[in-house]
Design brief:
With about 700 residues, the protein is α/β, with parallel strands linked by helices. It contains 28 helices and 24 strands. The two termini are about 55 Å apart.
């Protein structure tokens, strides 16, 4: 007998208390081991529309709802007695007549009053809006996975009622309708053969999953709110399981599940290649720690697989490999490089270059591309640097850079780029790679030598390199050509378009900060305009106040409202542009009567505390409610960066990355977003407001 769980089961389990969850899990494990044991107390639900729905007693009050046939047992809900019975009475599991996918369908006549109740008062008095799907036939809607009994209701949907109706439909139908509403033609759902098992359909597998053993069931139930460990969207699963003939990259805007795909890809490769070593990496140690936590949830007790997947920041990977063959590296920090550049540029015989120009030329050209000779520097294309320099000036510049390199060697210091250059050369010389496969998250913030290092790891092998990232969230690196470094993803790239984390209102406002299409240097496009969110929410609030003194009270009032609406402190985040504005966040949280937790590179949100941090450290986090504050003129974009510009190209880059920062901060919010600034506020806030 096949034993399955539904995503509705994990959803309902997450809403129970810890003790109730423990009792439910015990019963679930007992059912998996021996569902016909006489001790299992099944009760037929006479009022249920589905004849295969039964209840199973957990204790005096808690019941499981299961779908039981001769060949399978499916856990679909867990809850208190009356609520569980009521839930079962208005649902049924059936094979869709056109697509052939197994669906959990809400019975239309039992929820009619709910839809009417959800209609907002202002909608009732407004002029009637057109029905957006009136031109679609019943066959069209069935082709998108709409259950037959919902076809008429869907054809009557307006712009205002769409999300109300979508809440009651299977996921594939919801996504298709939302795509149609924004002018995107959805893919027709695959039609299964009559003989196919409806639970094997890709759309069915996003909500129903076979639990092959107790270890798999334990992973699914240990963190029931982490549905991604079990249930994947078909487009995500395709990216995870596909064979690629070379390097591949998956993109998508914030909240589309890129990190989830990266995690599942690493696990998939480990299972498919039982002797392989897999690297799962990202650009920062904070994000690497978060990946490790998520990987532990995903693989559970599969200890062999967990040992073969190494989770490290990319810098830690380079450092470990270098230390394995040499001594621990001595890395020159930014201050040391700046001092050396100033020292060797301070000569009456040398043209007076600004400190910012020298630092930019070193960082983005000489060091990034590992230029070691005058010939290298003379011939290099200064990609992204628009300030022209003549031959004589270039000679003077190289004299400075050569002196800096000589000084670093004399002090036994190296840059991170130097380290990766040496490690990469050793891999190429030895013809051996320390990892069989590499999966990279947040790939948009990799540097030149890091991409070259990964190219050496992959060495052109199939499936060896898999990248996940979003050009719209690039906040640390200048753009450069991956293709020139040996990583050509053309023909092996894809885009995730379904946003699960952020409400339609927040996502659509945040998207105004970025162009609809972003291209990399190699001409690969990321189209953002076809992204949809699958749930509704209140519109974001943008508030511009008259003074810094007024802002804390405004933010504190909003924070207190979130807490009054039953949000927990750890579900709220407050972000600022840089550490100079953290006092404004602290004051607002204190005024709200709450406790602030300042996140740094190692800290994680804690129960009972509101998290505060800079926008850079917000990367990878998510909260139900987010306040992005202190978005003043000269803070966003940061005036210090603008004043430090020495190259024409840098001005555009500063504006782009500052926009990306605000986009990252805003898209950490799931349901509620507040953005504040002091008049005159950041020009970016006008874009948010439309």
């Amino acid at each position: 007998m096949e034993f399955r769980i539904a995503d509705t089961f994990t959803d309902s389990l997450a809403k129970l208390t810890g003790q109730e969850q423990k009792a439910v899990k015990t019963t679930a494990f007992d059912l998996q081991v021996d569902s016909v044991n006489p001790g299992m107390r099944f009760h037929k639900l006479d009022r249920a529309k589905d004849p295969n729905f039964w209840s199973v007693r957990v204790n005096a009050d808690i019941r499981l709802i299961v779908h039981k046939t001769a060949s399978s047992l499916l856990l679909v809900y867990a809850g208190h007695h009356n609520k569980a019975y009521k839930w079962a009475e208005c649902r049924k599991i059936e094979r869709h007549p056109k697509t052939g996918a197994a669906q959990l369908v809400e019975v239309r006549e039992t929820i009619e009053e709910i839809v009417i109740h959800q209609t907002r008062v202002e909608k009732q008095t407004a002029l009637a809006k057109p029905c957006i799907f009136a031109n679609l036939s019943k066959g069209d809607l069935l082709g998108f996975g709409v259950p037959p009994e919902w076809v008429n209701e869907v054809r009557k949907a307006t712009e205002d009622s769409l999300f109300d109706i979508a809440e009651h439909l299977p996921q594939e139908a919801t996504e298709a309708l939302l795509e149609l509403a924004v002018g995107v033609q959805p893919k027709i759902t695959r039609v299964a053969a009559e003989s196919d098992d409806p639970f094997d359909h890709p759309d069915a597998q996003r909500r129903f999953r076979v639990m092959a053993n107790q270890e798999e069931l334990a992973i699914a139930l240990n963190d029931p709110w982490e549905k991604w460990t079990v249930f994947l969207h078909p487009s995500q699963r395709q990216c995870v399981e596909k064979d690629y003939t070379g390097p591949a990259r998956i993109s998508g805007s914030a909240g589309t599940g890129k990190t989830i795909v990266a995690l599942h890809r690493a696990a998939h490769l480990a299972r498919k290649h039982p002797n392989a070593k897999i690297l799962l990496t990202t650009f920062s140690s904070t994000l690497a720690n978060a990946l490790q936590t998520k990987l532990n949830r995903l693989v559970g007790d599969e200890s062999d697989m967990a040992l073969r997947i190494k989770v490290r920041s990319i810098k830690q990977v380079g450092k470990d490999l270098y230390a394995h063959s040499h001594a621990t590296p001595n890395i020159a920090d930014d201050a040391t490089i700046r001092d050396l550049l100033n020292q060797h540029a301070d000569s009456p015989d040398i043209y007076r270059f600004s400190e910012q120009f020298l630092l930019g030329e070193w960082k983005d050209v000489v060091n990034a591309w590992q230029l070691k000779s005058w010939e290298d520097y003379h011939n290099v294309q200064r990609l992204g640097r628009k300030t022209r320099i003549g031959g004589k000036q270039r000679e003077m510049l190289w004299a400075i850079f050569a002196a800096v390199r000589a000084e670093l060697d004399a002090r036994n210091l190296m840059t991170w780029a130097d380290l990766f250059g040496r490690v990469t050369q050793e891999i190429l010389d030895q013809g051996m790679t320390p990892f069989d496969f590499a999966v990279v998250d947040e790939a948009q913030d990799l540097g030149v030598t890091e991409v070259r290092f990964l190219a050496a790891l992959g060495s052109g092998r199939s499936n060896a390199l898999f990248f996940a990232g979003d050009l719209g969230q690039r906040i640390f690196q200048q753009p450069f050509s991956w293709k020139s470094l040996g990583v050509d993803i053309r023909g092996r790239s894809g885009t995730l378009r379904i946003n699960y984390r952020t409400s339609h209102q927040i996502r659509s406002r945040a998207d105004r900060l970025l162009p609809s299409t972003i291209s990399d240097v190699d001409g690969n496009d990321e189209n953002r305009k076809e992204t949809i969110s699958v749930f509704d929410g209140p519109p974001p609030q943008v508030k511009i106040v008259d003074s810094i003194e007024e802002e804390p009270a405004v933010v504190a009032g909003w924070l207190m409202q979130q807490l009054d609406d039953d949000l927990q402190p750890h579900e709220i985040g407050v972000f600022v542009r840089s550490s100079a504005q953290l006092d404004r966040a602290r004051n607002a949280v204190k005024m709200a009567g709450a406790t602030a937790l300042e996140l740094d590179n190692g800290a994680e949100p804690e129960v009972g505390k509101i998290s505060i941090c800079t926008m850079h450290l917000a990367k990878g986090l998510e909260f139900r409610a987010v306040a992005v504050i202190a978005c003043d003129d000269e803070i966003l974009p940061l005036q210090e960066r603008i004043e430090a510009i020495s190259d024409d190209a840098d001005l555009e880059e500063v504006y782009n990355t500052e926009r990306h920062l605000l986009y990252v901060a805003c898209t950490r919010a799931r349901d509620h977003l507040l953005v504040t600034g002091v008049d005159p506020a950041s020009e970016f806030l006008h874009d948010l407001e439309g």
